[in-house]
Amino acid sequence: MPELRDSSNHGSGKHTHHCKEYDSYARIFGLETEYGVSVTETDQSCDPGQVAMMMFAPVLSRSRTTNTYLENGSRLYLDVGSHPEYATAEARDPSDALVQDLAGESIMRQLVDNAQAQLRKTHGPNATIHLFKNNADSAGHSFGCHENYLVRRYVSLPAVNHQLLPFLVTRQIFTGAGLVNEHGFEITQRAMFLEDGVSSSTTRSRPMVNTRDEPHANPDEFRRLHVILGDSNRSQWATIMKLATTHLVLCVIEDAAKRGIDSGFEACSLSNPSAANQAMSTDLSCHRPVMALENIKLFRSAQQRFHANSSTDCDSAFVRYERNVQISNAETVSALEIQYLYWYIVAQFIEKHTGEIQASLPETSCLYVLNEWKHALDALNDGQIASLSDRVDWIAKHQLINQMSKRNPMLSSVQQREIDLNYHDITNGTIYPSLVHHKLMNTLVSDDAVQQALTRPPADTRAALRGTFIRCALRTGVSFSCDWTHLKTTVPVHGEAEINDPFDYRGDAQYAGLIESMKRSEV
């Protein structure tokens, strides 16, 4: 049976050769989603902790732990506070990360279905388990959706703070999940809970980007960027866009760091990221200048260059900057202004490096991402917010609440909160499935693809090696343990292998020998 090992923060030290992907724009993506648990309509009290343990009973039976890895290369575990958590297998493309994330939803539903059937035998026939893919509960607690990006080591943490963080804060105008709280409606669920910008702290405060150095790769070449500020998305489009646009921004930052030049994003550096994040979240127009920058003159100068060049001809494959966002003399800027500047810099960069950037995305078109990003900004800029309700979670939810309020002017804040939670309930919620059924929510992944991803890891990362190892061990009955970078067997076969390179999907002789030893034990 598997036992979990934790990888060293500093790698094994054995993998020292120069990885060919280091010199490209290739990236590894991953999502970690914590789910909230609630139970209703029971005949006797039953707290979420009991329900979570009931959910993980099959996992505990198979693995003798509530912390395990699965055949699709992912990690499934019960986190602190009785939050079921699913970490996707390593993916080289946002599309694969999305499919893996949706597979996680399906796995969680299976666990809930089993637990709910058991609960109804002991706690009444109407007992209902709710599993929320969101980031805040009614008691004021927050839990996260964390994004992971493999980044070249030469990108400094100050660069992350000044060049990437403003993008992460403002991208929420099209990736936020929306929240009903005592103040009304907000764009993002995490704004009120995050205190620091970039920090290694996890207990004293919650940073937007965590710098704990666990690359799960060669530490001399890479760092793992652990982004905490994003919301959990139901929208498949939003999941793709938050990963893909962040990748494109990181490509510009990496290129600038490697060449020792400015990326252009320095002009967007926020003077107080936490305050900017909270102010952005309450501006449903996305137009109000609510963010203070470290150097407003630098930003206005960059913005003027942007507009001066916006009428120049571009390659026909690229969208042109056709709508001007209003430039003011204010000492603060809007989220939309910052996003337009990021889009422009990225568009100019891709125009010069189209082949290299596209090569970093095996499945997702970088031009599709660029065009969708621009379309979302233009819709917000033109006040056509409702046109994004089929892809942006916060807009879909806000529009639904507004429509229901018109039908029922007495709709209370409690009822609005119920609508909010129902949207995120992946097991017994009705709102999101109804939107999908009536084609009011854009979907990008087929049910068949999700079904396959339940047991099939991405084929072009080391997740394929981990998945094959676990599948072989389960079939042969060999006792095993594994984590992101290490595989080990004990009884009746003793062996181990390192899988330190996340881009390696073929394995080395040591790995091949470990697999072969398990196969021989079956005979």
From TrEMBL:
Record keywords: Proteasome
Pfam family, one: Pup_ligase
Classification via PANTHER family: PUP DEAMIDASE/DEPUPYLASE (PTHR42307), PUP--PROTEIN LIGASE (PTHR42307:SF3)
GO molecular function, one term: ATP binding
One GO location term (cellular component): proteasome complex
Lineage, opening ranks: Bacteria, Bacillati, Actinomycetota, Actinomycetes, Bifidobacteriales
Gene Ontology process terms (BP): modification-dependent protein catabolic process; proteasomal protein catabolic process; protein pupylation
Protein name: Proteasome accessory factor A
Gene source species: Bifidobacterium commune
InterPro entries per record: Pup_ligase/deamidase
